[in-house]
TrEMBL record:
It comes from Pyrobaculum oguniense (strain DSM 13380 / JCM 10595 / TE7). Keywords: 2Fe-2S, Iron, Iron-sulfur, Metal-binding. SMART domains: ZnF_CDGSH. Gene3D superfamilies: CDGSH iron-sulfur domain, mitoNEET-type. This is Iron-binding zinc finger CDGSH type.
Length: 57
């Protein structure tokens, strides 16, 4: 089974990785015009949130 990781980048999007390789960045600030994908809007609005990481085996 593939190792899947979800990491909330500090002050940024969720990074989804499979076997250590990033495959998607998902919005967590709620302002992306390309939801569910991140478009960098978090930088423009000053979004702040801590880093969190989960790994599934």
């Amino acid at each position: 089974m593939a190792k899947v990781s979800v990491r909330a980048i500090p002050n940024g999007p969720y990074e989804i990785s499979i076997e250590g390789k990033p495959v998607a960045y998902l919005c967590r600030c709620g302002h992306s015009a390309n939801k569910p994908h991140c478009d960098g809007s978090h930088k423009k609005i000053g979004f702040t949130a801590p880093e969190v990481a989960l790994t599934f085996h």
